[in-house]
């Protein structure tokens, strides 16, 4: 152990390197057979740090919040051996098991059994294994100003089942943490598993050496944000292709989703989708919003704001023909959201057909249909909901392949679509 | 290097373990002297993975989005040696330098020079060092339904400077990634640096062995979410205690902030604070919202939903007297947000007095005032903005020490404050 110049860094205690194979080899640790048809055959995902000899994955629970958990132990507020009391926490609505859970093809980035661990792995838990849910299912009432607007203008009418008199919509909510089966993730990106492991390790500056030293651990709990689902109507109906499904897959945009920034269409499209989901559920269908923590196309918000500045200040000002170029100059790519993993959650829900997809994204459409889910209709954002300064974004995207039933702008039209400068 | 049972995991290429000291020792790598008064003395934070010999920190840029960046390299969409073209990306508004930037006491979790690297470290960049901004400053117009409501009811009036006729507020936005100086973070939590490093490593299941092997690297870029600031009025006025500052420090609650869930007061309090900030800036003051990615008290959303279920299902139903207990049973603690680090951003802005703090949180108040910032007035959420089902939360918090100018509920009142069940 190294010693700092002031002696403070001297390690007085033994550091348990998790990559040491002693005591946590195949013996005694439940194996994970990803894609097995039953929970018993699949085996539990065990990411506990309390008893390291039980671990059968790389990484920690709670996505990036695992760092805060560590901080809580360091600060002395959390006992490191605290075991969650899961009394009364089980899902309000049972999802699956669905046929898509078996086979290791449809789902590689979430644990299909993650909501029901207390039930399906109760034997292990009784034996003392610390197994934690990676999915939680609850119910809520959501109350949005945009839904009040829809009520005021009679676009929606309360039915006291899906939409209450006070404007609240009744939903089932699902929170999902990422659980990556590395062989399957590698296959999605057409890269060898060993290359994926090596690059994940190297390009994060050396996060989790086990990625390259423990090829026997095939599951990784990455420290990234997860997903949230909002379901309108009966969650069981999602798996029934005869029930009309209205769905939007939405990627986080804090600036618009929360603060209403007018440079993009994110919140208006999201609230429009919620309105469509409510209407669909009221007329015998079911609705779904799948919300992913992928801020700024998964480039993060610092990069996003740098790109805004470059767009607004470039010669000629912000214009639709240079929309993607500016992102590429700063970030090296146009997008890091990797829609390849996004359909997993749809398969987890048992979805086979999306009757109304409230999205114009060609990347999302392709990822969904390539994964074997049928899409019937694609629903555009109504033009009156596009903020003036967001015309640059929407025109650039349509020219790049986003769905439209209108005119695709040509080069002249793109160059002529201008955004606001900083001086206005 | 290990070989998998099927031979696929055999590593054909050399794995560059970042903890190898060769070629990146003190020689040639710019040193970081945290808290030095000038950028030149402080030195740049270099988290590049492109040229590992330049690195002087543990971790990677972009917080948790560093994992997506690695995925982009693995998928072959991003060249690993891409260097950001920072043309036109510089801050729209210059923040600091402020006196609080010097001394290593006031700021330990963000890099005060993070917005201006292209300027203050231009020499290094010219020499080929890959130095990236960890802070970005831009301008935006934000348009919220709640502000339209305030306009309709004449609580706000457009002035065409802070608030436009179309209901948009003009703001300066700042995105900030976490940059932790480990000796300073340890001091905040009253723990030794070596214990902090060891526990961060162990309790994340072995993230970044350099935490324990490289005590010469004092800076850590943790894979967690960052912060966003929304400034109403002139950002320079934040450092002037003679200009009335209205401020809210708000921790992410996706379910309420975006979707309007009625079980808590998060979005109503946030939009009330924005209204107060607009009004304050219109009357010669300045406004600030500091938004931190600390979902569900930094426990993450899965834990949050598990707690919701336990609250709604417990014997006697959801009630204010058991509000904190249910979180503790599931998570082991009531809260992991660690307001100890939160005031850093206020000091970065040069704030010495908050004239109107739009928050009732005793934890936030104590952290702010303990850090040496004066708070004059605390602004409650107006009672009419508290959703009915959020009475449990607000009463429990007031009983636990949240600010109120009204009655603190006693045990009977707490037990009598009930939330909705799942059957309603």
Automatic annotation (TrEMBL), chains A, B:
Designated name of the protein: GTP cyclohydrolase II
User: What is a biological process (GO) this protein takes part in?
Assistant: riboflavin biosynthetic process
Please note every region of biased composition (Basic residues): 7-17
Region of interest (Disordered), ranges? 1-30
Q: Does the keyword Hydrolase apply?
A: yes
Domain of life according to the entry: Bacteria
What keywords sit in the KW lines? GTP-binding, Hydrolase, Nucleotide-binding
GO terms for molecular function, please?
A: GTP binding; GTP cyclohydrolase II activity
* Domain called GTP cyclohydrolase N-terminal: residue spans: 14-203
The record ties this protein, via PANTHER family, to: PTHR47259, URACIL-REGULATED PROTEIN 1
Domain GTP cyclohydrolase II as annotated: residue spans:
244-379
């Amino acid at each position: 152990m190294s010693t700092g110049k002031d002696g403070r860094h001297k390690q007085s205690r033994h550091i348990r390197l998790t990559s040491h194979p002693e005591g946590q080899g195949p013996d005694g640790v439940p194996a994970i057979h990803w894609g097995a048809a039953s929970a018993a055959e699949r085996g539990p995902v065990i990411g506990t740090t309390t008893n390291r000899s039980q671990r059968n994955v790389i990484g920690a629970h709670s996505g990036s919040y695992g760092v805060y958990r560590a901080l809580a132990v360091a600060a002395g507020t959390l006992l490191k051996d605290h075991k969650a009391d899961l009394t009364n926490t089980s899902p309000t609505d049972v999802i699956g098991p669905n046929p898509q859970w078996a086979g290791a093809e449809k789902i590689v980035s979430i644990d299909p059994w993650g909501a029901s661990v207390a039930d399906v792995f109760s034997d292990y838990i009784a034996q003392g294994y610390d197994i934690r849910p990676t999915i939680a299912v609850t119910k809520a009432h959501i109350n949005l100003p945009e839904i009040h607007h829809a009520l005021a203008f009679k676009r929606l009418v309360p039915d006291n089942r899906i939409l209450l008199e006070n404007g609240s919509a009744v939903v089932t909510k699902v929170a999902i943490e990422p659980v990556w089966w590395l062989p399957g993730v590698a296959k999605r990106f057409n890269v060898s598993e060993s290359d994926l492991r090596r690059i994940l390790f190297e390009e994060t500056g050396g996060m989790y050496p086990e990625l390259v030293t423990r090829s026997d651990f095939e599951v990784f709990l990455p420290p990234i944000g997860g997903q949230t689902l909002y379901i309108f109507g009966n969650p069981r109906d999602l798996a029934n292709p005869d029930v009309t499904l209205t769905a939007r897959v939405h990627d986080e945009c804090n600036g618009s989703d929360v603060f209403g920034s007018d440079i993009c269409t994110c919140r208006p499209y999201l609230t429009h989708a919620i309105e469509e989901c409510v209407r669909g559920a009221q007329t015998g269908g079911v609705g779904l919003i799948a919300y992913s923590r992928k801020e700024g196309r998964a480039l993060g918000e610092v990069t996003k704001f740098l790109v805004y500045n470059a767009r607004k200040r470039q010669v000629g000002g912000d214009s639709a023909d240079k929309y993607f170029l500016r992102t590429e100059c700063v970030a090296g790519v146009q997008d890091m959201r990797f829609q390849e993993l996004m359909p997993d959650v749809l398969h987890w829900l048992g979805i086979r057909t999306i009757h109304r997809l409230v999205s114009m994204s060609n990347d999302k459409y392709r990822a969904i249909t390539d994964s074997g889910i049928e899409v019937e209709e694609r629903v555009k954002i109504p033009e009156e909901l596009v903020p003036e300064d967001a015309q640059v974004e929407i025109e650039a995207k349509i020219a790049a392949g986003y769905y439209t039933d209108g005119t695709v702008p040509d080069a002249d039209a793109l160059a002529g679509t201008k955004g606001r400068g900083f001086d206005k």
